[in-house]
Amino acid sequence: MPRFPRYVALGAAAALAVTLAGCTGGAPSADDSDPNVIRFMIGQPEDPADLELTKQDMAKFEEETGIRVELDVIPSENVRTIVQTQLRSGDGPDVFGYDTGPGFAGALAEAGLLYPLTDAYAEYDWPVYDFAQERVTFDGEIVGIPNDIETVGLFYNRTLFDDLGLAQPESIDDLMSACEAIKAEGIIPFAISDQEGWQGGHLLSMVLSSQIGGEALKALIDGETSWDSPEVVQALTVLEDFNENGCFTPSPAAVTYDNANALFYSGQAAMNPTGSWLVQDTERNVDFEVGYIPFPAPDAPGIFSGGLGAGLFISASSKKHEAALKFLDYTMTQEHGAWVIENAQSIPAFPIDTTGIDASPLFTQVLDDAAKIADGTGDFGYNVDVFMTDTFNEAMWNGVQAILTGQATPEEVAASLEENR
After folding, report:
1. Which of 149, 194, 245, 278 is 20 to 30 A from residue 5's alpha carbon, by CA?
2. The 3-state secondary structure of the chain, one letter per residue
3. Cα separation, 199 vs 153, whole angstroms
4. Number of Cβ within a 10 Å radius of residue 55
5. One pLDDT digit (tens) per residue for the chain, 421 residues
6. Of 346, 390, 330, 350, nearest to 40 (Cα)?
7. What global pTM score does this model have?
8. How far is CA 384 from the centre of its chain?
9. HSE on the CB side for 182, CA within 13 Å?
10. Cα 167 to chain centroid, rounded
């Protein structure tokens, strides 16, 4: 059950090694006898162009360190299963990309499968933002380097909206009215996918963030308020209403993430609810102007849900910790951070001087939003799955999917969330 689109996007870590030594399909193959060869596992990048993007960067890394990175590219939908299986068997990659938060990296840390990095942070003086460092700290031990800061919202076909005389939606009613106008043109309003399941968590995070605000959502995450509250039920009802009104892709639970993106790129769908990690792929693949906004609140423009994407981790069983640490350290330099921003359009979770960086207007907006997340000056919601347990996330993913297939009511799903919190 894959949930990892952002983990295979080229963040500060995943961008690093995506072209090196071919694809092993998840089978251990790095030369255990050579301390200067490490295996790095990532999910398949969404855009093949990203494989070419990093050749020059990786050549520089090997030239500087003498360390060769053997890339292990696996199907993105199998990342979680393969990583856990290999780590538990003792045959895991030396370094791998995985999600932060208690339900993901936290579970691996609890099982003793991650190499502790607290001493490395002190030795290398890695300047990770405090809030980001907290997302990879469990039981007082730092176990990873967060890749990037990201937001989740709505990409929309601004050219189409202009042609139809539609303003940028600033409320739920505005959004529903836009859906009706778009449907009348024979175009799918929302490119919704939920075959994989994890997308439902992003949908709920977007709607709930805008509906109740970041502070109230944090109270839900922290257990101070109930997940079967009227506010959660209402957020789930918003998804039910848009789906029943024909605003979503037909049979969204049968649509893959990649297929939904393709519907948006081709102009067959007018809006794509996903994250800022897709800015570069979107700009590569569309021939129209694109806007990026939060999912609206009932009577206001709403707020983005925001936070961290994946992280970079070292296997506890790796015999090449020294080389792996050098690999992590390379991703933490100002030079590499600036390269990632400009070339991979990913935002590292540490301060980068962006003076002189060439960025599109769309990515400039994302950079500005990320800066507000980093310094705490903006009102942002949260990507719920990053903060919650595996059990809760399963209930959330399955619950939203059940709403989209008409198999459960918002009240039933909210009750399940509370039960599995």
Report:
1. 245
2. CCCCHHHHCCCCCHHHHCCCCCCCCCCCCCCCCCCCEEEEEEECCCCCHHHHHCHHHHHHHHHHHCCEEEEEEECHHHHHHHHHHHHHHCCCCCEEEEECCCCCHHHHHHCCCECCCHHHHHHHCCCCCHHHHHCCEECCEECEEECEEEEEEEEEEHHHHHHCCCCCCCCHHHHHHHHHHHHHCCCEEECCCCCCCCHHHHHHHHHHHHHHCHHHHHHHHCCCCCCCCHHHHHHHHHHHHHHHCCCECCCHHHCCHHHHHHHHHCCCEEEEEEEHHHHHHHHHHCCCCEEEECCCECCECCCCEEEECEEEEEECCCCCHHHHHHHHHHHCCHHHHHHHHHHHCCCECCCCCCCCCCCCHHHHHHHHHHHHHHHCCCCCEECHHHHCCHHHHHHHHHHHHHHHCCCCCHHHHHHHHHHCC
3. 12
4. 12
5. 333 333 343 344 444 444 344 444 455 555 677 999 999 988 877 777 776 676 677 778 889 999 999 888 888 778 889 999 999 999 999 999 999 988 889 999 999 999 999 999 999 999 999 999 999 999 999 999 998 899 999 999 999 999 999 999 999 999 999 999 999 999 999 999 999 999 999 999 999 999 999 999 999 999 999 999 999 999 999 999 999 999 999 999 999 999 999 999 999 999 999 999 999 999 999 999 999 999 999 999 999 998 888 899 999 999 999 999 999 999 999 999 998 898 888 899 999 988 888 889 999 999 999 888 888 888 899 999 989 988 999 999 999 999 999 999 999 999 999 999 9
6. 330
7. 0.86
8. 11
9. 31
10. 28
Q: Is 280 exposed, middle or buried (0-12, 13-18, 19+ CB in 10 A)?
A: buried
To the nearest 5 percent, what fractions of the chain are helix, strand and coil?
Answer: 50, 15, 35
